[in-house]
């Protein structure tokens, strides 16, 4: 990488300002084009038939009647999606999840699909597909699935990560372990030990926009896919691999995205739409219903976690231990491993041990959800930390400050930390007016910390300067949270021009080099690095063109405040040339002016947050209401502070829903009973207070502007902060998320002895 | 020569060692030598391993130099949301 990413400590003129969002008007007027807003001439309607059973062998599929129905142009099953994964187990699971192969593994698993001239015909055709199932015993609970008596979901699974390969298969796909020191010895030095078990239920990311795409496969092997995704280049790779297409001949265009949060990081229905189009010879639009979104996409893990923490009377933690069991749906995952890595990452611990177990269940394939796995681990750990502080008679903020990790601390997941922001977020919380505000009757205050890694990745940017001096920026990371505005600010900063001169677009896969998807809080971190690099490359050309114009050596030309300036007294009479003036003459000075960059952005820098929450609990009903909420988080450098605040608020809002209401509810038959927003209740505006935010800026040494990712960490502390607040308000420790009214009421009544 | 710390599962593939010494100037050479010395690690490298150098995590920059005396820590390559 011919680019120096180190933090330079420069002063900013554009970065850090708050211009109006460039996509705002289109979005509020309905002009923005989402996944379902695109149409092609002659397109068909795709619909998917899904298993009503949690676990069943597919003995026979008869599609003949559906194929004969007038208006039906294609019917497909797994036979139309042959296994081309070449031993890639992860992609095989993705393929199997797109269309069941031999067994249906959860309620909602796709088993067949049709393309027809209209939705009515497609629905009618689905009813004509005859499937013979052999229903198998199922298991949906993570603890039940670990028992040796549980129904086996995949008899080829032998637990990885054990010292010896087990003799029998099980639903536990993997064991992982992290830590250092000797926890047994550490607990021996503790004066007080808190030991508790916690559970969290499965939640959906709850993105408002369902999965949607329009696919068109031509006879010559070329294809187009318009799709709502967090990573159109990744979708291209997946679809090309699963359908045997050449990646460069499949052009994928990402639509606007109505939320993803990790749920749109791998393909679900897109290969099905492409296979239908290939068979029908016409474009196919496939849009999931909300019921399908819940039953067959998204959700995060359900968990069961044991935590043990010991401390001396002076408040020093002597040992910490956790066992984390995470469900991964019917396919292997690494969700407990991530939970095990993040659980104690906020703390300076001499003795720490975490063990994770990945558990198969008959539920949809688990997908990432904003700092995946970290919120549940933080809920368990931060609840125990709070309880320990209370037992020691130490203020919970002071207790955390005393034990907080700092530069030079060996993290619980292994490496020693560089400069980090957990201490400053805790100090900010300690001094925040929220901590001193009086509480009313039945009200309680809670606080908690959270950690997330943040990632970088492969990134590519084109910056093109028009002859009128306007600048277009083509980026390859999907804009999920304001990156087009942020990247325009970065380009304006480098070029020394006004933000209004820039327009950023997300380019399709045929127009730009490969980009990793927008996950791991990497969008602005990675693409800003590439934008800086591209702008600097364009400036080299601008200087060269000015040098040509003046007929002087390019080394005598510098770029300052959007102008080429001839340096030195001998050029005293040369007026500076603006970007616009140089662009206007570009046709006769060498042609178009552009800057390009392709790089791997690495060194994203870990992120920490501290949240404070006030809750009022109705002791008669168990209903909990958030009355005040504050997010304090390190952003490294907030490029567009309004969007950063939006990320903080969004993570907190999702965390509030997760903590208080949201859960997948399965019946004894293994079927999901609340696959809709009426019965699966995400918070609406009236459920939320104004969420206050405080941005800290501790520069990331591995980014020229000091930027860190901000998109995910904000969902890590809410479950714990709210649980601590509810526990304080209700006078009983809450150990099961969500803390829905029946659950809180039951805990209060149990505490009263009722 | 750099000392490299392996996480649990990787340590099992290196004969139960949690730390190994490797003569490597950058991440690329480190991975090559690890695969030569411990063939069981090669599939993990193919799937993706992150390398923490003095606490900063690198996932894809295989040209990153490994400074003498730096703490080198291998980690699973994780998913984000």
Task: Write up this protein.
The complex is a heterodimer of chains A (754) and B (81). Chain A is of the alpha+beta class and 754 residues long. Chain A is built from 20 helices and 27 strands. Chain A has a domain at 24-29 and 456-601: Aldehyde Oxidoreductase, domain 4 (2-Layer Sandwich). The radius of gyration of chain A is 27 Å and the shape is globular. Chain B is of the alpha+beta class and 81 residues long. Chain B has a single domain (2-72), classed as Ubiquitin-like (UB roll) (Roll). A five-stranded mixed β-sheet of chain B has the order 2-1-5-3-4. Chain B is globular, with a radius of gyration of 12 Å. The model of chain B has no long low-confidence stretch (mean pLDDT 92). Classes of the chains: A alpha+beta (754), B alpha+beta (81). Chain A binds chain B through residues 1, 160-161, 163, 176-178, 205, 261-262, 265, 334, 337-338, 341, 368-372, 411, 413-418, 453-458, 519-522, 600, 602-606, 701-702, 712, and chain B through 5, 7-9, 12, 52, 54-61, 63-64, 71, 73, 75-76, 78-81.
C-alpha Rg of chain A (nearest Å): 27 Å
Strand count, sense and barrel status of the largest sheet of chain A are: 7 strands, mixed
Mean pLDDT score of chain A:
97
| Subunit organisation of the chains | heterodimer
| Strands in their spatial order, largest beta sheet of chain B | 2-1-5-3-4
> According to CATH, what is the class of the domain at 24-29 and 456-601 in chain A?
Alpha Beta
Biggest sheet strand order of chain A reads 3-5-1-12-9-10-11
Largest sheet of chain B: 5 strands, mixed
Q: State the CATH architecture of chain B.
A: Roll
Overall pLDDT of chain B, averaged? 92
Give the full name of the CATH homologous superfamily of chain B.
Answer: Beta-grasp domain
Can you give the helix content of chain A as a percent range? 25-40%
- Which percent range fits the helix content of chain B? 25-40%
Low-confidence segments of chain A, ≥5 residues, pLDDT <50? Answer: none
Number of strands of chain A: 27
